[in-house]
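FW: tagging you since you asked about this chain on Friday. Here's the raw sequence from the shared folder, copied in full. Didn't touch anything.
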Amino acid sequence: MKYVIILGDGMADNPIPELDNKTPLMVAEKPAMDYIARSGRTGRLETIPPDMPTGSAVANLSVLGYDPHRTFQGRGVLEAASLGIKLSENDMAMRVNLISVEDNRIRSHSADHITNEEANQLIRDLQKHFIQFKIHLYQGLSYRHVLIVPDGDTRLKCAPPHDHLGQLIDALFVEPLTPEAKPTADLLNQLILESETFLRSHPLNRKRKKAGKLPANMLWPWSPGRKPRMKSFEERFGIKGAVISAVDLVKGLAIYAGMDVIPVEGATGLYDTNYENKADACLRSLNTHDLVFVHVEAPDEAGHAQDVKLKIRCIEDLDRRLLQRVLNGLKNRITETAIAILPDHPTPIAHGAHTREPVPVAILDPRIHPDSVEYFDEESVKLGSLGLMKGAEFIVTLLGKDK
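HL: got it, structure written out here
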């Protein structure tokens, strides 16, 4: 048996007044998702436990059947793994964004989706500037980068910038959770303040402002952690897995889970990602792997941007250009393939930040009769036979371990 998981990051939402109190999933044209719901079983999945942060790392760990209480060590360590950064036992890894600050408030968590080339120049220059800090900055993609603090204390309260758009910087600085963590918090806050001074007059930012773009005028570190210890996916479930994603976080999770990361040309993590190449890579990977996990970041970015039209477009593109293409490619082996569609968490348009509400799930398994649900959306699946799943129940159900 083969297994496919298609995950639309942040795809779930709340009812929106301008959509007649429907969600983007309810109004989007998504025949492939509805086909899976109609031909399979539906329900909901709690991906983020009540006492865990509302981030994609926690949510995707849950989707793949890992207990985030035991395995979550922050986004930084996962993204570091994706970038090939080797961590010592004493290294603290953090995700660090290039952000845009205006009037002392976070204007953009992504510096207006700064290009890779521009971001790489800034990160290189910042690393040289902060040589005396004994920290290490590593270039990622666009606004997403990694900060390593040797012997850093992870007991910190940090503010994910995408969850605090429009808020005052003064209320969001890093806070120590213990007295021992204060030196690390002080170091990070000094890094934030000095990065603003350095970036304010950087030639690249002057060029961006002249072109009408937001400047990348501050570094923002968050999500501290150390190297996690976790069993491989194959050790846990006895099957070989592969992951397709443009996002370092998800690639790093795959590396720690012992899953193969499949590179895809044109995968960007935005609405302009190459959906077709992702679909084709998924189909090819099924020849050499038992399970393929395809992650699409675009709906989440549209949610953070609070752009309802873009979010609907991203859902429709995912459906038509990726999911339907996978279904078409599976026609000759659909009887031996189970396929699931779900988000990892909601990213509601109303406030542009992640939330922890359960997400809709649909699983088409040719061995099992469908339930009566016709559509894939937040409300319809509440009547599904899968009910409310938690923890590893989704992956166990997909793999047929409940039969």
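FW: The two ends are 14 Å apart (CA to CA).
HL: agreed, and The chain has two domains: 2-72+229-398, 81-225.
FW: great, closing this out.
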